[in-house]
Amino acid sequence: MKKKQFAAWMTAAALVTGTWAGTMGVYAEEGEPYYEDTVTLSLLVDQNWLDQYGEALTALSDAALEKYNIQIELENKTNGSDGDNLVKTRLAAGEMTDLLIFNSGAQLTSLNPAEYFVDLTEYDFMDRVQDIFKEAVTIDGKVYGTPVSSSNVGGIIYNKEVYEELGLSIPKTWDQFLENMAACEEAGYVGILGTCADAWSAQYTLLADYYNVAAQEPDFAKNFEAGTAKFATTPAALRSWEKLGDLSGHMNSDYMAATVTDGFDLLLEENAPVHWPMTSQFFANMESLSSHEDADKFGIFPVPGDDENDNGFTVWMPNGLYINKESENTEAALTFMEFWVSDEGMEIFMENAMADGPYLIDGAELPEDSYQGVLDLQTYFDEGKTCLALEFLTALKGASCDQICVECISGAMTPEEAAQVYDEDCQKMAQQLGLEGWE
Q1: CA spacing 20 to 30 A to 69: which of 34, 82, 260, 325?
Q2: Among 105, 92, 53, which residue's Cα sits nearest to residue 74?
Q3: Is pTM beyond 0.85 here?
């Protein structure tokens, strides 16, 4: 291997298979490190992640115990801000577990990873991790994590059966999308689903449009954080708010009262809404609420821009796996991390979890039984037609974004007003973060 090696591996490589490496406490079995005494690695993870991927993590942990004599001991934390504060407190107190599953992107930056986590930049196994994920776990040129699940994209969920019935094609521009909605409504369907009672769901047209913003303004995230670019004064970013403003006339009549749970039911009714701005987690949620067959009735396409020759997805990165710099079991933690991203480890994981999008490990191809809507995403990733969501590029996101989106959709604010109010909301956040340029 051309880069850093685990010390245990360096020792084991010089040994005859099965010979004891006394100084390291490791056997070399068929070229792999094997610990004579079971090494227990503690891992802190929130319950939301375990609810979706617990079976896959258990299978992976069982395999690591058999292969390396490394045992994973889970510690659960609460979800949301309370769980985030717990992580910060334990890091500061020197009481963090050996391993941590936590957000990638801007929320990782808030943990000061250079102080608390092992720098993975020069380890060979990081060559398997795709650059789009590395970008979300890189701070000051150092890489700190590996992905613990698949990617997830934002876009427009659509009913494939209705599209086939009406002879519609995937829209390449926003105007074509509006034409498709009008055709659906003429045929007796609802153009687009609104679930504004859950205000967070109203954000996805705005957030998933970031691919189109970045296509026109590649430095928008950097300039936005610096306070030199704003949504209200950057035409490409203002366009996202204009798209929100186009939606209300095409939504279900109860869009202000409907919840996301209501939305899944509405999609399966007669003359149902044909579209829904959402993420590709939709497919797993639809299966859990209905069936895999119903999930496969739907596909997802990117939020269209205004250039029919450039269509791509805004991508949300999965959580990362991080190693506590103060762990007494760093070598074993590195061994487990490398196993997870190996062909063998990823196969175990994929056998026990459904994907929301393409995996971010080279060689980890989506299983054939993945949702068809997820399988269709692979081409965009292969062609580089993807962009990180803005929240992975800057910590600057206004706390009232969801409510402002609802007011823009409802017509209580014009797109121009909503963009201005959102900039003011972001200014409050920027001042809390101590960012220069937003005074």
Answers
A1: 325
A2: 53
A3: yes
